[in-house]
Amino acid sequence: xxxxxxxxxxxxxxxxxxxxxxxxxxxxxxxxxxxxxxxxxxxxxxxxxxxxxxxxxxxxxxxxxxxxxxxxxxxxxxxxxxxxxxxxxxxxxxxxxxxxxxxxxxxxxxxxxxxxxxxxxxxxxxxxxxxxxxxxxxxxxxxxxxxxxxxxxxxxxxxxxxxxxxxxxxxxxxxxxxxxxxxxxxxxxxxxxxxxxxxxxxxxxxxxxxxxxxxxxxxxxxxxxxxxxxxxxxxxxxxxxxxxxxxxxxxxxxxxxxxxxxxxxxxxxxxxxxxxxxxxxxxxxxxxxxxxxxxxxxxxxxxxxxxxxxxxxxxxxxxxxxxxxxxxxxxxxxxxxxxxxxxxxxxxxxxxxxxxxxxxxxxxxxxxxxxxxxxxxxxxxxxxxxxxxxxxxxxxxxxxxxxxxxxxxxxxxxxxxxx
Amino acid sequence: xxxxxxxxxxxxxxxxxxxxxxxxxxxxxxxxxxxxxxxxxxxxxxxxxxxxxxxxxxxxxxxxxxxxxxxxxxxxxxxxxxxxxxxxxxxxxxxxxxxxxxxxxxxxxxxxxxxxxxxxxxxxxxxxxxxxxxxxxxxxxxxxxxxxxxxxxxxxxxxxxxxxxxxxxxxxxxxxxxxxxxxxxxxxxxxxxxxxxxxxxxxxxxxxxxxxxxxxxxxxxxxxxxxxxxxxxxxxxxxxxxxxxxxxxxxxxxxxxxxxxxxxxxxxxxxxxxxxxxxxxxxxxxxxxxxxxxxxxxxxxxxxxxxxxxxxxxxxxxxxxxxxxxxxxxxxxxxxxxxxxxxxxxxxxxxxxxxxxxxxxxxxxxxxxxxxxxxxxxxxxxxxxxxxxxxxxxxxxxxxxxxxxxxxxxxxxxxxxxx
Lengths: 419, 419
What we know:
homodimer, 419 residues, Alpha-Beta Plaits, Maf protein, 6-stranded mixed sheet, CinA-like protein (chains A, B)
């Protein structure tokens, strides 16, 4: 089954909103073996929506429209569907009752404007939305399926998972697509490419490898297509074995794995706790660590030591060393890691101190310089990195390097098989 | 001038990568008064790239392709351009020398594979890329302009700013589009809609208002089109005055403003310093605060008190109150804010304690419950919020509420004119 996604909203065209819905839909369809061949983004304009829908239906049997079902005057998708397919809009009393009930449950009066969300184009089936006020819309005819979904991410995801995907998986079959993503850290795209020299001989039109660079590392996407699941699986495994053999411990994990999740698993497996002292990363490492549900089992906490005074009073950094070596130095990184470990009563302390920029750089310590410190009961050391980038990207890259240093440190402490 | 953006990459279709480039390009074009009418995303497939290019050229005089210019075997844009426009690919020795120089500067050998990046379709002008190895490509003919740019975000942005936008602004004229975004906090989309009741009477096809909900608040996008800048500006100001009058202090700022930037300006203007104690937000507030360059002028630092032990030892929370009231309570939120203020020697302390989920909720304190505490020399208080959402969204929403509480607190301390 071939699909085309049409995302709708002026905010997407003028760059006010990043189109996370498109990525979420792509991943969800791909996981169901539905091939997404194109994504189109158009504005809140019934003409443009209609043209996109017509174009899409000629090429794909599934068209998913996303956005423009809200209650406000710039939500035009209902109207566009009716116009484009020559259907009338009908006020569905059952949907109106559901919307009224949604507001009643939250003890708020229903704004008059929300009535338009009960309008359904003739021949469309409304998909009940229990987490918001915009119902989804589903229509099947000889040409295929047209689905319209709200653009609010959690409403979209809820309707996809509970109404749309179950209907679609009943319809698909035949061609199998299997994918696997290998997550790497601490190695650039070109270096990876060099390490994987010769991989091309394994690839053909049914087996592909894509390099996906990101601020936290390069991901490798392996895709196999075949007429049955066994063949696809087999080819995927052969390619994965080649890659694993070549890149060694630069491999962090697979699919949805992240550095923070892998570090969390290693800490759990070793029964160790972690504390963090952050200067230049400003809380970004702690933020990532606590994105993982259950982090409280191994994460004691962190200190964002942005001022030098805090480095001294809360982390016990020696003020003389701070004055002599400067805050961005090996000695201070080591003392911060030791201080985090000691004052937050953890087994391992991890610390960052660097120059995020855009100001504060010098010839000797340019913007992008960072020292990452690590301390446990046996060792305390720091490594220097140079990560020139804008401020936000620097924080992300320094966070990835810090988490990877911790990962490599923990890996040395246990047999590889436990990972 | 009408533009269509074609973003290229299998990783975009299978949802491995969120298309931030499309948003960045949309904002950049919009700021130059170029109307982006559609964004298409296709895979690394020369056929699909060619079809998208042909379709786009029929509707717009500027087509911007983005992605697929890298050195690896899945980068097919050069080949697609040559095939689609009937041009041959020529190896440009000058570009090859630049790529070789790029690697030499970094003291790394040039991988053989990077040679393909010196291939240029006949009639295209290469745009020198000083921050990466993929040159951009520019072509003008009677139908308009075709530009191809690398998909690595900082390379794309560098080439747009230094080569593409200067050329484009020389070509545009006539129709003026002006936009302004009003950033709000602490108020939902429906409530905003109610407060703005009657705004429709001001709007027409040349003046529009869009609601853009996001995890940190709803943004309002105002757009005016006119034949001259004065008229567009005048209409925009009239609409903005209406909105400002209705929503009062829920208005945080305009355009690229963020809660953390506005809070930073208020702290600077009042000569105050800030310290943060985070439990459920896990460092996300500190991370946002330190995204602002120059935050060290007012941000002392923060303590991520994930374990109860850290709340007691580093923030001075009374262990008896902690045991009696629980960590997620008014008393603990107040003591955390006071502790942050005291131990980090700041004028204002801000604290969060809540249940991010998905586990840990009870009937009395369900997932989504959060207490936000605030302390300064005169006051110490906490407010309760209920923000049901998944873990990451909860952290974002709680962070927005905390920063907004701080903003409202600071606003009361100084005359409104200073803001």
